[in-house]
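Retro notes (design track)

What went well: tokenization of the new backbones is finally stable.
What didn't: we kept losing track of which sequence belonged to which structure.
Fix going forward: every design gets posted as structure first, then sequence, in one message. First example under the new rule, 299 residues:
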């Protein structure tokens, strides 16, 4: 048998939130069209840079404070989906891509328009595609099944019955708080602990071997196994975050989590296939040019 060294793994994270949205009102004084910035009343930790949100009006009118260029059809609608950047005073800027929203600059920013009326809105955080967590040094995933003692009187041996499965673990990564080639920094998971309005939930795929990686000299060392992948997937809550500082050492962030549902162990032994257009190009997911629609594999 081969010896496997865990150096080709990774973690994909999908942002999640509890159901429901935040209702508020955008007043004319809340919109700064020259800076493409607006504000509304919300808890300080409700939104995090890079969140993909749906903003819709609650009275059936249109989102007049967003320029028509913010929609693919080029016309103002009653609702729209964008990535957000939150500045130091709680102002909101809208962006067309995740990477641009983390930077908070002028690139990809959606222009705004001054308004003369109050617009009631509902802001809901939506799930988007998975992204790799940057600079991971190690992770631990624990799964256990509880047992129930069902020993009865006169039994000569103790009897056990398997009960519920639970999972927990930790993630350690080099600490960073800025965009790293479109990856999720560990700083985001630390922010989740402070998120009181929508909780600290996330979805994850924890890879023992990521696809398109080479593990030469180990069990996955042939060309036919280059695209293979082995991973666990689950929903979880962040329960603890810590940062370690010491002179002369790299700063590392540690996240502890508990699983909130089933933990599935999956394997991929076929190359990933995508649904294609007539031109042969992959079909991109809405407002996320780095994600594509997968083709369902036959049974």
């Amino acid at each position: 048998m081969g010896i496997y060294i865990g150096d080709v793994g990774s973690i994909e994270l999908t942002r999640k939130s509890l159901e429901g949205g935040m209702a508020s009102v955008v007043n004319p004084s809340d919109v700064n069209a020259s800076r493409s910035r607006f504000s509304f009343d919300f808890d300080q930790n409700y939104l995090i840079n890079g969140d993909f949100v749906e903003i819709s009006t609650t009275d059936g009118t249109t989102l007049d404070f967003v320029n028509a260029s913010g929609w693919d059809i080029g016309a103002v609608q009653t609702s729209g989906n964008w990535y957000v950047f939150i500045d130091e005073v709680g102002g909101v800027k809208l962006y067309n891509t995740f990477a641009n929203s983390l930077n908070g600059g002028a690139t990809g920013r959606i222009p705004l328009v001054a308004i003369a009326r109050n617009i009631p809105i509902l802001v809901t955080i939506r799930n988007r595609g998975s992204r790799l967590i940057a600079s991971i040094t190690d992770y631990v995933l624990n799964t256990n099944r509880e047992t129930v003692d069902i020993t009865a009187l006169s039994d000569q041996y103790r009897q056990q019955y398997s009960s519920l499965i639970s999972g927990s673990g930790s993630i350690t990564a080099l600490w960073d708080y800025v965009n790293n080639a479109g990856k999720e920094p560990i700083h985001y998971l630390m922010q989740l602990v402070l998120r009181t309005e929508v909780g600290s939930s996330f979805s994850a795929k924890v890879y023992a071997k990521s696809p398109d990686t080479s593990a030469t000299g180990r069990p996955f060392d042939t060309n036919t196994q280059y695209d293979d992948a082995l991973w666990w997937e689950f929903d979880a809550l962040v329960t603890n975050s810590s940062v370690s500082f010491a002179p002369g050492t790299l700063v590392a962030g540690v996240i502890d989590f508990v699983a909130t549902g089933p933990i599935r162990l999956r394997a991929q032994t076929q190359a990933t296939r995508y649904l294609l257009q007539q031109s042969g190009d992959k079909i991109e997911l809405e407002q996320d040019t780095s994600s594509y629609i997968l083709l369902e594999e036959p049974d």
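Added context from the reviewer: The chain has a mean pLDDT of 81.
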